[in-house]
């Protein structure tokens, strides 16, 4: 009996150490969206408690085979507690064909609280030589469901 108790004691010690570990929640969003002129595909956001990765998307100008201009930029915003925060941006300057652009990827150690996130959207801006003016369009990527009805907040994974 003493032998069994002697063998079980270390096992109980090890198991009690595992009990105090906290659950870590990671989020992965694969986003896409469209505006009148642009289509965004394969845009990804990965959120962990210690790291954020954003990007890897493709912006494609709809119904154009070629579009030469002097200026193009995009800026992705996340809305937390009613405030818009820029989380990813990119640009092209100089004469270029902007019909298809990659967003690149941004990695950082900033913390984004998914529970406080209500919207994600991208603003695309480019110079339109025909209008002789900058054009700006919004692509909606994520909107938190009303009443927080989303499986992403469930603890049962």
Automatic annotation (TrEMBL):
Keywords from the UniProt entry: Signal
Signal peptide: 1-19
Name the UniProt record assigns to this protein: Lipoprotein
Organism: Oceanobacillus polygoni
Species lineage: Bacteria, Bacillati, Bacillota, Bacilli, Bacillales
